[in-house]
Design brief:
The complex is a heterodimer of chains A (about 120) and B (about 120).
Chain A lengths: L2 E3 L4 E5 L4 E3 L2 E3 L5 E7 L6 E6 L5 E3 L5 E5 L4 E6 L8 E8 L9 E2 L3 E6 L1
Parallel strand pairs in A: 2-12
Antiparallel strand pairs in A: 1-4, 3-9, 5-6, 5-10, 7-8, 8-9, 10-11, 10-12
Chain B lengths: L4 E3 L2 E4 L5 E6 L6 E8 L3 E9 L14 E5 L5 E5 L8 E8 L10 E2 L3 E5 L1
Parallel strand pairs in B: 2-10
Antiparallel strand pairs in B: 1-3, 3-7, 4-5, 4-8, 6-7, 8-9, 8-10
Classes of the chains: A mainly beta (about 120), B mainly beta (about 120).
């Protein structure tokens, strides 16, 4: 079975700082990778996804992530964060071709951006 | 368009009672998922329906949990003889391929279940 590890449980940054949130997965085969965000009081939203092709994927709100197969990693990045990026971020993986199966989530990273 | 809806938004029940949670997926979505989110366990997959295929029940924590999907649309998650450890937010998601590019899961607002 697959598993996902997010190394940073709480991150505090100032506005305009650069962001990198770590995500590693454990699975021997082909995977589909996702980052979801949960803003305070709102439901989970998809930030970006990787199924195949270019390992550098761009998502909404200026976020991007890079799939490094040799490192089993899918780290999330943003060059300059805003106060509105304060939220919980979840990395997730599934393994079925096309990504139809259930997601395995990491424990989440609580990001606080200080104005 | 309308997103995934769930009802009730909050449910308080006594230990030992049965509860039913409802999910209305996005119209036309063929796949439907249940997850639960709790402080101790994070986000856990429970069950997944795809079209008319047999559901993937691999995430259900015990036989007190069951789910149905009627007519390929609305789904009900039932928890029998609720326990305090069942207290969590139960999330529903639905998905479909978009031009064959892969499944994106869209989540509902959740039902917060409190077992007293």
């Amino acid at each position: 079975a697959q598993s996902v590890s997010q190394h940073n449980h709480h991150v505090i940054l100032s506005e305009a700082a650069s962001l990198e949130l770590g995500c590693n997965y454990s699975y021997g085969g082909t995977v589909n990778l996702f980052w979801y965000v949960q803003y305070p009081g709102q439901h989970l939203q998809l930030l970006l996804k990787y199924f195949s092709g270019d390992p550098l994927v761009k998502g909404i709100k200026g976020f991007e992530a890079e799939f490094i197969k040799s490192k089993f990693s899918f780290n999330l990045r943003k060059p300059s964060v805003q106060w509105s990026d304060t939220a919980e971020y979840f990395c997730a993986v599934n393994v079925m071709r096309g990504g139809a199966d259930g997601l395995t989530f990491g424990k989440g990273t609580h990001l606080i951006i200080q104005p | 368009g309308a997103g995934v809806s769930q009802s009730p938004s909050n449910k308080v029940t006594e230990k030992g009672k049965d509860v039913e949670l409802r999910c209305d997926p996005i119209s036309g979505h063929t796949a439907l998922y249940w997850y639960r989110q709790s402080l101790g366990q994070g986000l856990e997959f429970l069950i997944y329906f795809q079209g008319n295929s047999a559901p993937d029940k691999s995430g259900l924590p015990s036989d007190r949990f069951s789910a149905e999907r009627t007519g390929g649309s609305v789904s009900t998650l039932t928890i029998q003889r609720t326990q305090q450890e069942d207290s969590a937010v139960y999330l529903c998601a639905s998905s479909s391929t978009r031009g064959g590019l892969g499944y994106e899961q869209y989540f509902g607002p959740g039902t917060r279940l409190t077992v007293t």
